[in-house]
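Saturday, quiet lab. Running sequence design on the structure tokens for the scaffold JK sent over.
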């Protein structure tokens, strides 16, 4: 009798767990309206060289004024960074670690993990350059494992994914898989299924732009998908060419990051994007200007 009673209790507990309502996100990236929107149909503001921050104008290799936690706190939802092997570990550095060493990728990702733990209704994209072709299996994945981020990273059912095949932000938040990671080189999803190749799914406009009118063109793209089936990213960061040295233009950042400049650039790219607004806008000095308001307009929220 005691065994039968125990079995009945255990069976009731299993039923109560399996029949519990599934959590549904009601606010996604700060807006209820975005919960039902596909990841491939949302405009996100990104920080170019997110690790390269300093308030000191004498640091010519900086591209941001504020650090990673503050970028995230302020609403940046794409972080871009350039990796290099340095002193036996993978670091984020600006062209060369001798010019600017942003610290190890592990410490960077731990900051990201802390933010994601504290903000359970956010979807974040990480876009990393891998110029030395470091192994996704032997180098990159162990770092994500050590940072505790692996369980949060979204792995699509197939690669490449068309822009309209991605889940909604609400679905990603409900599943707990709400970090998307792209590498620009040497990604191999047969080895690590969540480190995704960028250019078969995202095309970019030219980078290192010195023309403040930001003429739009498709600069980098790969794979079998058509241009209109790709997501796309606008490099909306202005540079100055001083005696052949190209540097980020902090002085004009209020104009570059204004609603007018961003929307003009976006509207110029819409015909190349199959009539859709950009998925990602990559900016320098993201704490300056009104980029987030421009994103709200492009997302139909303002």
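Result came back. Writing it out in full:
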């Amino acid at each position: 009798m005691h065994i039968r009673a125990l079995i009945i209790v255990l069976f009731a507990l299993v039923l109560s767990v399996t029949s519990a309502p599934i959590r549904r996100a009601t606010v996604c990236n700060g807006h209820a309206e975005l919960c039902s929107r596909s990841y491939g149909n949302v405009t996100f503001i990104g920080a170019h060289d997110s690790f390269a921050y300093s308030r000191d104008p004498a640091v010519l290799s900086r591209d941001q004024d504020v650090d990673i936690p503050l970028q995230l706190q302020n609403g940046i939802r794409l972080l871009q960074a350039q990796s290099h092997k340095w002193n036996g570990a993978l670091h984020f550095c600006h062209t060369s670690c001798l010019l600017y060493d942003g610290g190890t990728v592990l410490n960077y990702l731990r900051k990201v993990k802390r933010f994601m733990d504290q903000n359970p209704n956010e979807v974040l994209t990480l876009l990393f350059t891998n110029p030395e072709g470091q192994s996704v299996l032997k180098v990159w994945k162990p770092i994500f494992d050590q940072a505790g981020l692996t369980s949060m990273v979204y792995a699509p059912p197939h690669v490449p994914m068309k822009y309209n095949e991605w889940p909604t932000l609400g679905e990603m938040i409900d599943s707990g898989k709400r970090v998307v990671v792209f590498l620009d080189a040497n990604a191999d999803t047969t080895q690590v299924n969540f480190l995704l190749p960028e250019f078969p799914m995202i095309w970019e406009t030219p980078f290192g732009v010195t023309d403040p009118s930001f003429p739009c063109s498709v600069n980098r793209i790969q794979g079998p998908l058509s241009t209109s089936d790709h997501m796309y990213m606008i490099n909306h960061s202005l540079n100055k060419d001083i005696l052949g040295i190209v540097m980020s233009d902090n002085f004009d950042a209020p104009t570059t990051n204004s609603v007018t400049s961003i929307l003009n650039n976006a509207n110029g790219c819409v015909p190349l994007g199959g009539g859709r607004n950009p998925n990602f806008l990559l900016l320098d000095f993201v704490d300056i200007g009104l980029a987030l308001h421009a994103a709200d307009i492009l997302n139909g929220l303002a």
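Notes for JK: Residues 263 and 297 are 9 Å apart (CA to CA). The longest helix spans residues 2-18. Ask whether to fix the surface positions before the next round.
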